[in-house]
Each structure stands twice: as structure tokens, then as C-alpha cells.
Amino acid sequence: MTNPAVIRELDARGVATVTLNRPTVNNAYNAELIAGLLTTLDVLFSQSSLRVVVIRGAGRHFQAGADLAWLNEVAQASYDDNLAASRATAEAVHRLNNVPVPTVALIQGGCFGGGTGIAAACDVVIAADNAIFSIAETRWGLIPGIIIPQLNDAIGARQVRRYALTGERFDAHEARRIGLVHEVVPLAELEAAGAKAVDRLLQNAPEANAQTKAIAIEHAWGDLSPERLARLIEQHAVKRQSA
């Protein structure tokens, strides 16, 4: 089934493919894409046959962070509307992080800001050799607080302190070195590499995988209490409306 900004497919094996579908703006996220992702995850979670979720971006890039035109609109909105936007954004990444089935991200081209949060929230991340990453929110006077727990899990607080403070771009091989991605392949082989990862995951017992993942998250930065998540959301929203 299709949302204008998110496409979802579920095959006979129980493998769902979720495609971020705003290629004309490099799949930058706005209210429509966030709502589409939340709806997609809700629908997929209701399927008892679900075994694996693959997330990808349409076009040349995986996900180029926030749509700056949309961010400007939200910044001018009421406090409550601004807070709701941050809550939905945080919930999308938090929910993806806690999907009770294995998740695979296939990354090509740009993966910036929130895109790195999506990558960090997935269990297996494969990048094409043309992938470029950055955590550059502070260059716009914003903070990446709602994705830092997942990034801390993926690359460690030490690397987050470098890349989230400098905002510098880094390539797929550096992303692999620091742990954001697990494998780097030629762009032409990205889909095939993803298929191999899915095949490996399908060989394992679903309930054992679910429990193993839950235990790993329980002992990770991303295991947020409702109170800690609410605090990150409020900080994220307040900063967006600051001078």
C-alpha cells in the first residue's frame, strides 16, 4: 500500500520493504513523511506474519534530514504545534528502534541528520560506497537530541561528541569504522547485499530474535523511559523556536 511520502510492501515471507518516497527533496522529512512512517509501522506491527523490515530511500539519496522549509513553518507555529512536531519525529525513530523484528537499512547517497538517526535505530545497516553522512543540526541552531540515544548506541558517545559538534561530513568507510554501518558495498550491489542480510535473518527463530533484540535494547542508551523521552522532545522543540 502507498502513502504519498512512504511506500510499504509486505511479501509472502513476511519481509516488509518501507521506502521513503520524497525523492525530489532527497527524502527530507516533513509532517507528511513522519505521519506516513508512523502509520506504516503501526500497520506492519499488526501483521502477525511480519519477520523483517527493510527501510530504503527512493532516488539518489537515502534521507537528507529535515525539510528546511517545513522546519521554518513549524518554528513559526504555536508552541503546542511545534511540540507535537518534535513528538511525532521522536516517536518515529523511537518506534523504529523498538520494532520487535530485525530491521535492515539500505543507504545510498546522502544520509544527514534524522537519516543518521534512522540508520542508528536499525539492526543491520548496509551502505553503498557513495553514501555520505553528517549530524549537522547545530549548524542550523538546532539540536539532534531526539536521535542522540540511538546514535550513542551505534557509534558511542565519543564519536557523537565529535560528529554532532563539528557537523562535518564523513564517507561510508568512516561510517563503518565508527560503527554506524556494518557493511559497505558498490552502489550496484546494494540491493543484493540487503537481500543476503534478509536471508540470514529469516534463518533464525522469530521469537528468539525478538527477545534477543529486546534484551540488547534494555541495556542500551536507547531504552528511554517516557520521562526521558518527553524531556528530549521538549528540548528539541524549544530550541527550534529560539533565536
**Sheet with the most strands?**
6 strands, mixed
Order of helices and strands: EEHEHHEEHEEHEHEHHH
Span between N and C termini? 41 Å
Shape: globular
The helix count comes to 9
Mean pLDDT: 95
Low-confidence stretches: none
Percent helix, as a range, is 40-55%
Radius of gyration, whole Å: 17 Å
How does this model look, in words?
This protein is α/β, with parallel strands linked by helices. The chain contains 9 helices and 9 strands. The chain has helices at residues 31-45, 68-75, 79-97, 114-121, 148-166, 172-178, 190-202, 206-218, 226-240, and strands at 6-10, 15-20, 52-57, 103-107, 110-112, 124-128, 132-134, 170-171, 183-185. A 6-stranded mixed beta sheet has the order 1-2-3-4-6-9, with helices on both faces. α1 crosses α3 (79-97), α3 (79-97) packs parallel to α4 and α3 crosses α9 (226-240). The model has no long low-confidence stretch (mean pLDDT 95).
Features:
243 residues; globular; 3-stranded mixed beta sheet; 9 helices; alpha/beta; 6-stranded mixed beta sheet
